[in-house]
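W.,

You were right to be curious about this one. When I first looked at the sequence I had no strong expectations either way, so I just let the prediction run and decided to look at it fresh. Below is the sequence, 188 residues in total, followed by the output.
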Amino acid sequence: MTSCDSIGTPMATKHLDADLSRTPVDQTKYRSKVRALMYLTASRPDIMHATCYCARYQAQPTEKHLTAVKRIFWYLKDTIHMGLWYPKDTGFKLTAFLDSDYAGCLDLRKSTSIGIQFLGGDKLVSWSSKKQDCTSMSSTEVEYVSLSACCAQVLWMRTQLTYYDFHFDKIHMYCDSKAAIAISCNPV
């Protein structure tokens, strides 16, 4: 790790797969590394997606999967100064962003939902990266499922914040699919 090259992203653009024909690695060591990364996601949301992707292959990890895990550690070494920052005296506007990948899991052809929620516009308070339970037939359906999951999280957060006397009439949610937005605005 001390002599590793600089790396700009926690995960390569090529997605991982089961890679059953390659050299297996020790499950215990692989799981230990993934567990350490999962712990770090509490303060480093930038590694959440890559870590969750690597966690999918804990049952039969290979050299390819271990290389992906090591890449996350290399990224962390280069970005040790990064983390969450919560400045005081900013507003309490609740905002959400979501995205998904269509059939990004090469093994099962399932998609991944990614959602982040901010308070005050710049205070990241919640984030997630989760493989969807269903297999979708279109990118619109994938985005709509992500929109639904993000909406459920935002509604839960709004309920919790009312206990602290913060009330939100409008919550802005940002989605990059016009079709999913149209479906959510006009449910059948």
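Here's what jumped out at me. The beta strands are 94-101, 112-119, 123-131, 172-174. And, maybe more interesting for your project: The chain has a mean pLDDT of 89.

Coffee later to discuss?

I.
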